Amino acid sequence: MENPEQWGGGGRRVVVIGGGVAGSFIAKSLQFHADVTLIDPKDYFEIPWASLRAMVEPSFAERSVIHHKDYLTNGHLIVSSAINITDTEVLTSEGRLVTYDYLVIATGHNDPSPKNRTEKLKQYQAENEKIKASQSILIIGGGPTGVELAGEIAVDFPEKKVTLVHNGSRLLEFIGPKASNKTLDWLRSKKVDMKLEQTVNLNNISDGSKTFITSAGETIKADCHFVCTGKPLGSAWLEGTVLKESLDSFGRLKVDENMRVKGRKNIFAIGDITDIKEIKQGYFAQKHALVAAKNLKLLMTGGKETKMAIYEPRSVKAIVSLGRQDAVAQFSFTTVIGLVPGFIKSRDLFVGKTRKLMGLDPNVVYS
Predict the structure, then answer these.
(1) Domains and CATH numbers, the chain
(2) Distance (Å, rounded) from C-alpha 355 to C-alpha 364?
(3) Residues 6+ positions from 362 with CB-CB distance below 8 Å
């Protein structure tokens, strides 16, 4: 590595915390422009919108679960959690101090996962065996995750009884009612039993129990269940750090139009952890990473702040997969369901495209 003193714009030590969609993408983008260190509690990046397909077809995960070192060929990887930050350093859970000139926080949502890729693939295998061994399956949550999982199971295992319980009055509340209704009709056409405006209290369920009671007093019998409700933001660890004042009341980091944490010159935040008013989707997280990467390159080469790229929140554009061939898509001007949006997303769930973006062979399968 060259001596940082030779560079313009101060040093070029960039530390990225979080290796999800946004963090892995920015680390990859900057690795030949800076001395990049990625800190992530696991040794792989997972294409999140492919995870449900991997549950019904575990071999799919071979392409969608990617070792960080496969794309981060010129950076450093620390498999650990960040537990504190100061104005110049990041502290990891095993006590390492990592100095930064620029910091990018991309810790997204808190989703406990196995530490290594092999364990993650085994987890998919186990989930798949659980689905195969069950005659009846309960899915709790009618957001994109619950809907996509119900669709995947209903299409791949049409003989199984799938019940979906959702606390809202309609599915996919982040998109328009038309798309919600079309999705509901599609799931019903696949014999998914829908229970809206109900919840299931999981606290009083013993392990291995096959009887679930909804808030409306209905009894559901299911051999297994999957909880697909929202996950907490991965920001609780920031509450005792120099950025505690930068969190809003929801625990999101307040960012400016250049993707910098408000009031900070050299700290950026990207992905789900930001307070940008748009739905939290991997597609937008990648866009955040592109803008932040551009701005970091500019700052590291001594460019003017007035030339920094601006991120503009997008109107809702959502594609939710429904099994292998169909999908529901909402664009700013229309809502469509069926084969056309399905062709865009469901066949491959953008896995080939994302692998290509990460500089990898779109089709390679390795173990």
Answers:
(1) 4-41+80-111+231-314 (3.50.50.60), 123-230 (3.50.50.60)
(2) 9
(3) 351, 352, 353, 355, 356
Question: Which regions of the chain does DSSP assign to beta strands (E)?
Answer: 13-17, 35-40, 44-46, 65-67, 76-79, 82-85, 89-92, 97-99, 102-105, 136-140, 161-166, 193-196, 211-213, 219-221, 224-227, 267-269, 318-322, 326-330, 335-338
Q: How many CA atoms lie within 13 A of 356 on its CB side?
A: 7
Nearest to 243 by CA among 84, 17, 16: 84
Sequence-distant (≥ 6) Cβ neighbours of residue 343 within 8 angstroms:
325
* One-letter amino acid for residue 321 of the chain: S
Contact present, 226 and 128 (Cβ < 8 Å): no
The two tokens of residue 203 are 């606290």
pTM: 0.87
Rounded Cα distance between 101 and 89, Å, is 9
Please state whether 172 falls in left (phi above 0), alpha (psi between -120 and 50) or beta.
left
Task: Show the CA angle centred on residue 46, arms to residues 328 and 48, nearest 5°.
Answer: 20
- The model's pLDDT over 66-116, given as tens digits with 9 standing for 90+, comes to 999 999 999 999 999 999 999 999 999 999 999 999 999 999 988 889 999
